[in-house]
Amino acid sequence: MATQKGDDYADRSHEHADVVDMKHNAVLIEEAKHAANAEQRMTLLKAVKLYPKAISWSVLLSSTLIMEGYDLALLGSLYASPVFNKKFGTYNAANGKWAVSAAWQSGLSNGARAGEIFGLLFAGWVSDRYGYKVTTVGSLILMIMFIFVLFFAPNIQVLVAGEVLCGIPWGAFQSVTPAYASEVAPVVLRPYLTTFINMCWVIGQFFAAAVNKGSVGRADEWAYKIPFGVQWVWPIPILVGVIFAPGSPWWHVRHGNREAAKASLLRLTSRNDPSFNADETIAMIEHTNELEKQMKEGLTYRDCFKGIDLRRTEIVVGIWLVQTLGGQNLMGYFPYFLTQAGMDASNSFSLSMGQYALGMIGTAGSWFLMSRVGRRTIHFSGLCCQLLILIIVGSLSFSDTNGSVWAIGAMLIVFTFVYDFTVGPVTYSLISELSSTRLKAKTIVLARAGYNASNIFVNVMTNYQLSSTAWNWGARTAYFWAGTCLLSAIWVFFRLPEPKGRTYAELDLLFEHQISARKFAETKIDPFSPQLDDEIQISTKNGKK
């Protein structure tokens, strides 16, 4: 009898607990829905007023990539420096010039890429376990240490080792910055903060050209030591600021710490907006996290290749591979390319500064464009324009006049503007939005590792194509990359979906229901339906999936 009473009491307790859970879930869903609706209705001006601190912290972390943009453009520029070539190159009796061989150029460029792959994989694990802030602080400390190797390198072998070592923290920055930028801001701010990363790249490239122009005229070792030493300017002040940065609310929710998530959110937002409800925003984050759990999304690298996440991983990796295969590599070799074509080294650096300044204008212009046009449209249109420019550059190579050299330079400047107006910045927005929140860090790691591995191939090809000691194709190199750009455009047309204006929960369900990439924009979806499997409301203009 006592046992039966005990069982009845236990049953009633379980029923009571189930009722409490149902009420809690109903409240959570209602709060999440209210926060999602408020976020989607939020104007840009209101978002800037509500999230000024999030903007500042995101900009600070993103500025770490100025260093990578600086160094990678620096290498291409230093190949045009006579002093650098004499120190680290070999003498070519045929033309009476010193030059770094194509093999060692590939070693330098690919050394950094190899280091970045290690840094990416390590950062993917560390950022998931300890957070974006700790990962960034540790990487900045390593960066400060490894610059010493570049600065004091006595030969080409040590210089390559320095590039490998510096690549490790650069890889970490590549993983952390887009993930952090996409998680600390609402939907309307997300494209601006993620594409600012591209602006940081361009700023770094501009400084590399400016520093090289100032030092190229020197006849001593400082012609290349000054450019290497300038890299210490970035990490120290950034490190001081990042120490005080708040963590990502999404990261805290994934680790089951609601209070820490709310505390971070309050540090990211303005306190003087009575319409903002932090608890509702946290409820939206929790709802999205639970939604992805129900879709059986884990937290390991293996999960990136399971179920619906396989498609998401393919798209994010593909987007970044397109960045290497669309001819963008010619921008980094701009001064070297022009000196090989016969232009004076000083003039090539001057033109390079103009190129990157126009790139900054292009990135700023992309912010205006993204507020009005979808990401997919921007990306595809940009690739088509790049294809046309590459064909023109290749065709100009058949003229041997000095005017054709300047025309090639002008077309590469236009190429830079088009890239930084379209494909370059929108890539960071796309990879941040199309990966799931639970697997974001690891998906970005895999995609960026694929990008760096692809870049190894691209760098080897470009060095041999442009080097006077190898194939010496000159401007005809553009024809080869026009072919890869065409293939990239075809892939984008069929595989790249449109995430503009979508919350993470909406994107999760669009992928879950296997909506075609070309129908993402027109599909209406309700992520707050009580039955996710049976009653989810999906409709398109023609009433079909």
Mean pLDDT metric: 84
Q: Count the strands?
A: 4
* Sheet of most strands: 2 strands, antiparallel
Strand content: under 5%
Q: How many alpha or pi helices?
A: 24
User: Are there runs of 5+ residues with pLDDT below 50, and where?
Assistant: 12-24, 530-545
Helix content estimate:
over 70%
The chain-level structural class is: mainly alpha
Radius of gyration: 25 Å
Instruction: Measure the end-to-end span.
Output: 58 Å
Across the major sheet, the strand order is 1-2
How would you describe the shape?
globular
User: Which sequence of SSEs, written as H and E, runs from N to C?
Assistant: HHHHHEEHHHHHHHHHHHHHHHHHHHEE
Describe the overall structure.
- There is one protein chain.
- The chain is mostly helical and 545 residues long.
- Helix content is 73%, strand content 2%.
- It is built from 24 helices and 4 strands.
- It has helices spanning 2-41, 44-50, 52-62, 65-78, 82-88, 102-130, 132-151, 156-183, 190-215, 222-229, 235-242, 249-254, 258-268, 278-294, 307-325, 329-332, 334-340, 345-370, 375-396, 402-421, 423-434, 440-466, 477-495, 504-512, and strands at 90-92, 97-99, 524-525, 538-539.
- The strands form 2 sheets. It has a two-stranded antiparallel sheet. Strands 3-4 form a two-stranded antiparallel sheet.
- Strand 1 and strand 2 form a beta hairpin.
- Helix 6 runs parallel beside helix 8 (156-183), helix 9 (190-215) packs antiparallel against helix 10 (222-229) and helix 18 (345-370) runs parallel beside helix 20 (402-421).
- It is globular, with a radius of gyration of 25 Å.
- 53% of the residues are buried.
- The model is unreliable at 12-24 and 530-545 (pLDDT under 50).
